[in-house]
Design brief:
Strand content: 5-15%
CATH topology: Trna Endonuclease, Chain: A, domain 1
Structural class: alpha/beta
Oligomer: single chain
Order of helices and strands: HHHHEEEHEHEHH
Strand order of the largest sheet: 1-2-3-4-5
CATH class: Alpha Beta
Distance between the termini: 30 Å
Shape: globular
Length: 182
């Protein structure tokens, strides 16, 4: 496995985080936050920014690992303008989420619709969610849509079973290696 590609992803995000100027209470942290030495206090200063950026980092790491290790990897599916998942491995249509925090009805309907569409196409919809502190209504909406959910440590275990790559071990070895604060 070529870990330099994964290191490149983490370095790019480290630089992006360092360059960011920052403008509710949750003291939860996760392994990806630990890689960047990102405290819950700093993350709270701009929750939307950190959630979006850590989510994209999570997506890129998962996608790259699957691309490097799975012969049946395919990029994201498109249903018209919609992209119901981030990648496909075999019959798994995989979408990655850092955290499920949106409870707005449009978002919840979209998750249900995408799950149903993917199942009709013969896929097993899989959601890999890194964080465990998710909004219950969002999780329930995904389950109603037929998504198979892997949350927290289970998402890392599923990824390891699928790819043979231990992302948990990789990230544990990188804890503090890409600090946001200089």
């Amino acid at each position: 496995m070529n870990e330099e590609l994964l290191d490149g992803i983490l370095t790019n995000y480290q630089n992006s985080f360092i360059d960011k100027v920052y403008a509710e209470e949750n003291d939860e942290h996760d392994l990806l936050m630990d890689v960047f030495n990102l405290s819950p206090d700093l993350k709270r200063e701009n929750r939307q920014y950190w959630g979006r950026e850590l989510g994209m980092c999570w997506q890129l790491l998962v996608t790259e690992i699957c691309k490097m290790n799975c012969d049946d990897f395919e990029p994201a599916l498109k249903f018209g303008k919609d992209e119901p998942c981030d990648l496909v491995v075999g019959r798994y249509a995989i979408d990655t989420k850092y955290r499920m925090g949106s409870g707005d009805s449009g978002t919840l309907k979209k998750f249900k619709r995408y799950g149903v569409q993917l199942k009709k196409q013969g896929y097993t919809p899989i959601l890999l969610i890194l964080r465990a502190d998710n909004l219950k209504s969002a999780i329930q909406a995904c389950q109603k849509g037929g998504w198979q959910l892997h949350i927290g440590d289970d998402s890392l275990s599923f990824l390891q079973e699928l790819t043979g790559f231990d992302l948990r071990n990789f990230l544990e070895r990188k804890v503090g290696a890409y600090p946001v604060n200089r």
